[in-house]
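Anyone able to model this chain together with acetamide?
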Amino acid sequence: MRFQVVLLIIIALVFFQGCKPEKADPIKIIPQPTEVVPGTGFFEVNSATNVYTGFSELSVLNETFQEEIKNETGIEIGISKIPLNRNGIELILEDSIASEAYVLEVNPEQIIIKAGSPAGAFYALQTLKQLIPVEFAGSDKPKNCNCKIPTVRIADQPTFAWRGYMLDVSRHFFGKEKIKEVLDFMAMLKLNRFHWHLADDQGWRVEIKKYPKLTSVGAWRVDYVNYDETVSNWWGRPVQKEGEKATYGGFYTQEDIKELVAYAKERYIEILPEIDVPGHSMEILASYPEVSCDGQPRYKVATGGVSRDNALCPSNEFTYTFLEGVLDEVMDLFPFEYIHIGGDECNKEGWKNHQACQLFMKKNGLKDEHELQSYFIKRVEKIVNNRGKNLIGWDEILEGGLAPNATVMSWRGQRGGIAAAKSGHRVIMSPSYANYLDLKQGQSDFEPNLGYSLALLSTCYNYSVIPKELTGEEAKFIMGTQGNLWTESISDWGKLTYMTFPRLFAVAENGWTPEYLQDFDDFVERLRPHLARMKAKKVRYAKSVYNVWVHQKGVDNTIEITLDSELSNPDIRYTLDGSTPKANSSKYTAPFVLTSSHTIKAAIFKDGKMSGDVSSVWYPIHKAAGARVIYHMPFSPKDSAGGQYALTDLNYGQLDVQGDHNWQGFENDLDVEIVFDQPIDIQTVRIISLKKTIRGTYPPTQIELFGSKDGVEFTKIGDSGFLETSQVQGRNRISSDLACEATGIRNLRVKAKKVDPIPEGHHQAGKKGYLKIDEIIVL
Ligand code: ACM
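re: yes, here you go
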C-alpha cells in the first residue's frame, strides 16, 4: 500500500514536471484591448475540450479554432454539434456588437466568445492565442501538461478600419508560401489590409494574360551574383548589358493570386494590389516599349536604383488601352474595392523632352508636367471607377490636382494626408519617418547594415494617426494606418522579419487601440512575451529597443561616456574589463569619465535577465590625444566643426543617422602632421574614416605614414598599399590599421588618398570622392 502511494507520488511528479505554477502571468495582449478584467483561476485546454457554435455564419470558424489551437498548444480540440456545459469554447453572434468587435470571457468552466461578425470572433481567437503560456510557443510543446488559459473578460474593438502592412515584392521577390506567412503574422496582430507592392522598376510580379511579356520579360532582372545581395550598392548597380541574362525574379500566376486572396479572406484580410505607374515603370517599358515616350526597345528591367527615364507616356492613347487591359485583369483577381496605382516619384524629364507630350499639354490646357501627371491619374481613375472600384495613390497624386474620388496614402510625412482630408478625400497614413519599416531601428553601430535613416520603435509607436491639424469632421477621412516594408536591402526572409518586428506590433496598436490607452513603457513590457514566442518559433526580430546606446565626448584628453536607451528607466549594467555584463555588474547612474583606453560593454537588465544584446565599443585614449595637428592640405569648411584639433580630440566620428557628427571633411587628399610634445614609439596607427556611399564619401585608397625625430627629416614608416573601395553601400565606420615599428617620433605625417573618380558600380560613380576622417589613433 505504502509502495503504491510512493509510486503515485512519483508518477504525479513526473506527470506534472514542467507544468506552469498555479499563478497566471500578467495579461499582455498586443494590440492592447479596450477593456481587460483579469479573474482568478484557469480554463484548461485539453483533448476533451470542444468548440461549438449555434450560428451558421460562425461555423466556418470551428475548424480555424481547432487548427490554430493545435498549432499553438499541440492539443487537438474537438468540434461539437451540441451545446456544451463545460470544457468548451462557444462562439456566439450578437447584433449589438460592432462588426469587428468581440467579447471574450474565459471562465474555469468554459470560454465564451461573443462577436459582431465572424471577423470579430476571429480576432477573439487571436487574443485567446496570446493568453496561451509562452512555454507552448516552440515546436517542443510541454508534455503531459494541460494548457492553462487565465480567466479574464476582454471587451475589444478596433479604432481604425484600415490596419495595414505593405510588402514590396518587386525589389526582392518572396514566393507564395512566404506571402502566406506574411498573412499569418498580420492576422496575429489583427491587421486587415495587405498592401502588395506588385510592380516597380525592378520587377513585375503578377501574371497578366493579355500582356504576357510583363512576366516573361518584366519579372526578371540581371542577378549580380558577385554583389552581396544583403548590402551591396543597390543604387549604383550597372544596368543590364547586351547579351547578359536576366535570371533574378519571379511572379505569381493568376492561380497563385486566387489562392492567396482566399487565404487572406480566411484571415479577414483584404489584399490591396499596387501597380505603380506612371513612374517606377522600367519593368513595363522593358516589356512593352510601346508605352514609353520614344517607343524604342532600349529599356531594361532595373537592376538597382530609380532610373531617370522610367515613366509611361501620358500623351499616348495606347498607354491607356494597355493599362485598362492590365487593370481589368488585376481587378478581376482582387475582389477588394480599392486598387493602388502608385503615382509616386515620377521623373517627368522624359515628358519635358517629348514633343508629343508638350503638344498634348498645350492642347489640353495643362500648364505643367504635374498637371500632365494629374491628367494621367484622372484617366486611370476612370478605368478603376468604371469597374465600381476606388483608386488609391501615394501623396504625389495631389500635385497638379487630385482625381475626384481618389484616396491618398500619405508617405512624405503627414502633409499630403492633411491636405487630402481637408479637401474631403479619404486618407491612409504611413509617414516614412514613423512607418517605414526598412529604416534603421537602433544605434547605427549596433544595427545590421540595412536602411539609411532611422525609424525607432518609439517613434513608430508614439506616432499619432490623426494629425492635430484636422477638425473632428476632417479626421473622419483618416481611414487608418499601415507599416511599409520596402525591400531594396531585404534580400531574405530573416531580414524581412528582423525589420518588421517588433515595429509591426506598434503599427498594429496604433491601428487598433484607442490613443488614450497607449503607453510606450507599458507597450515594451507587454512586448516581452511576444518576442519570447518569436524566439521559440525561430523568427528573427530586432531587440534594438532593449539595447543600450553608447555616447562619448572627448574632454581634456579623457572620454566622457553617457549610456542611455529608448526605455524610460532602463536598468543599465556595464563593464570596463571586457567581460559580458551581468545583472550585478556596475549599474549606470550618470555619465562617467575614462582616463585610459577601455572597452565598454553595456546591456539592459530586467528581473535579473538581459533584455537585449550587449552594446560593445572600444574607446582608446591614444598617444596623439590632444596633440597639435598641422594641415598641409586644408580641411573642408563644410565639415570643420572639430577645428584644428578634430583629429586628436578624442571626439570620435559618430555614425548618427540624423547627421554624422565629429568627422573632419577633406575635398582633397589628406595631408596632416601630428606634433607630439615628447618623442614617442609607435606600433600602430589607426585611421578611422566614414563611408557614406549615398553622399560619395568613401575611405582612402592609400595611406602613407612618415615619421620624424626632429620635425625636419621624415622617413616612411608605414604604407597601406592600395585599399580597394568596396561597393558595399551604407553608412559605416571604416578602420584602417597600419603597423609600424618606429621609435622616438616627434612628428607623424599622415597622407591619405581619396577615391577619385568613384569607380563604376558604386554610389556616385564617376564623381570625385569625399574624405571624412576621425580620428587618427596612434598606439
Ligand atoms: C515611396 O516611398 N516612394 C512611396
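The two ends are 79 Å apart (CA to CA).
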